[in-house]
Specification:
By secondary structure, the chain is an alpha/beta fold. The chain has two domains: 134 residues, Nucleotidyltransferase, domain 5, CATH 3.30.420.40; 170 residues, ATPase, nucleotide binding domain (Nucleotidyltransferase, domain 5, 2-Layer Sandwich), CATH 3.30.420.40. The chain contains eight helices and 13 strands. The strands form three sheets. Strands 3-2-1-4-8 form a five-stranded mixed β-sheet. The protein has a five-stranded mixed β-sheet with strand order 11-10-9-12-13, with helices on one face. A three-stranded antiparallel β-sheet has the order 5-6-7, with no helix packed on it. It starts with a strand and ends with a helix.
C-alpha cells in the first residue's frame, strides 16, 4: 500500500499524518512547533515522528513521498522565508535540510496553496476549475486556482492575501509588519485582538472583562456568542464584515465559482459563515451577484491541513 506523509507546519502546532490515495488519514499526531526553536532539533523530531507513525502500519506499506504545507514557503525553491509565526528566521533551505534526515521525494508549498490542491483532490472543489481557499488559523492564508491550475507566482509566493492592506497605513500590523493587513483582523489572533477592542468600545458586562489576552481562546468566544455575550457577538460581526468585504474584492480578479473557508476559526460556524456571506454578497459587483458560492471545506475536519499537504505528492501520482 502506497502512503504519503502530509505535514502541516503551523505557528502553534506541527501536524503529521499518513495519507492513502483515497484521502484517508491512517495515522496522525502533532507536536508543538515552538518547543523546537532550533531548526535541526525540529527536523530530527519530524523524522522521528514519521518513523513512529510508519511503524504503526504493516510492513507492506510503501512511503512514496512527503508533502509539507508551511507559511511563506516557496514551492519552487524548497525554502521557508521570513515566516511571521515560525521561530526560524531568514531564508531556510527546509527541503534540503530535511532530506539529510529522511531520503524520499519531498514537496514544500505555502500551506494555503496546499489546502487548495487538497480541496481539489479530496474536498468539495472536485471538478471545479476556478476557486479560492481561505485558511483561517493563527494567521490568514489563501490558495488560488484559475483554469484548473494553482497560481504559484514567479518563485512560489503568490496569494499572500492575508497581508493585503485594507486601511492604507492606518490599522493593525500583521506578523510581517503590514499596516492594516487583513490577517490582523481576520484570523484566530485577529478575533482575540477584536475582543480587546470591543471591550474598550462598549461598557456592557462580558465574561471577557476579567480575562487576559493570552488566556483568550476561540472556542470560548464562540460559546460566549451562543450565550448572548454582546462583546463576542460584536467581535464576530466586525470580523465577518471585514472578511466579507475583502472576499468581494478578491472575486474581481479571478471570478471564482466558489470560495472555501478552512481552519480553526471556521469552527465558529454561523457566527463566521452566515454573516460573512451576507457582507460578501452585499459588496459584490452586480455582474458577480448570485454566481459565487461561499462554502466550508470538504476535507475531513482536523485532518484537512494534513490532506492538503499530502496532496502535493498525490496530485503528481494520480
Amino acid at each position: 500500500m502506497d502512503l504519503v506523509v502530509g505535514i502541516d507546519i503551523g505557528g502553534t502546532k506541527t501536524k503529521i499524518g499518513l495519507v492513502d490515495k483515497s484521502g484517508n488519514t491512517l495515522e496522525s499526531t502533532f507536536y508543538r512547533t515552538k518547543e523546537y526553536p532550533e531548526l535541526d532539533g525540529y527536523l530530527i523530531k519530524m523524522a522521528q515522528t514519521i518513523h513512529q507513525l510508519k511503524s504503526k502500519i504493516p510492513n507492506r506499506s510503501n512511503l512514496i513521498g512527503i508533502g509539507i504545507g508551511a507559511p511563506n514557503a516557496s514551492s519552487k525553491k524548497g525554502t521557508i522565508e521570513n515566516a511571521a509565526n515560525l521561530p526560524w528566521k531568514g531564508s531556510v533551505p527546509f527541503v534540503d535540510q530535511l532530506k539529510s534526515h529522511i531520503d524520499v521525494p519531498i514537496q514544500l508549498m505555502n500551506d494555503a496553496s496546499a489546502a487548495a490542491l487538497g480541496e481539489m483532490l479530496f474536498g468539495n472543489a472536485k471538478g471545479m476549475k476556478d476557486f479560492i481557499v481561505i485558511t483561517l488559523g493563527t494567521g490568514l492564508g489563501s490558495g488560488i486556482v484559475v483554469n484548473g491550475q494553482l497560481v504559484e507566482g514567479y518563485d512560489g509566493f503568490a496569494g499572500e492575501l492575508g497581508h493585503f492592506d485594507l486601511t492604507f497605513g492606518d490599522g493593525r500590523y500583521t506578523g510581517l509588519g503590514v499596516d492594516g493587513g487583513l490577517e490582523a483582523y481576520v484570523s484566530a489572533t485577529g478575533l482575540k485582538r477584536t475582543i480587546m477592542y470591543m471591550l474598550s468600545k462598549y461598557m456592557e458586562p462580558s465574561r471577557f472583562r476579567g480575562i487576559a489576552y493570552n488566556d483568550l481562546h476561540g472556542e470560548d468566544i464562540t460559546q460566549a456568542a451562543e450565550e448572548g455575550d454582546l462583546i463576542a457577538i460584536k467581535a464576530f460581526e466586525y470580523t465577518s464584515k471585514i472578511l466579507g468585504h475583502a472576499l468581494a474584492n478578491f472575486v474581481t480578479f479571478t471570478q471564482p465559482e466558489a470560495i472555501f473557508l478552512l481552519g480553526g476559526l471556521t469552527s465558529s460556524g454561523k457566527w463566521i459563515l452566515d454573516t460573512t456571506k451576507s457582507y460578501m454578497d452585499a459588496h459584490l459587483l452586480d455582474i458577480y451577484k448570485g454566481k459565487v458560492k461561499l462554502l466550508s471545506s470538504g476535507m475531513h475536519g482536523k485532518n484537512a491541513a494534513i490532506l492538503g499537504a499530502a496532496s502535493l505528492i498525490w496530485q503528481k501520482v494520480k
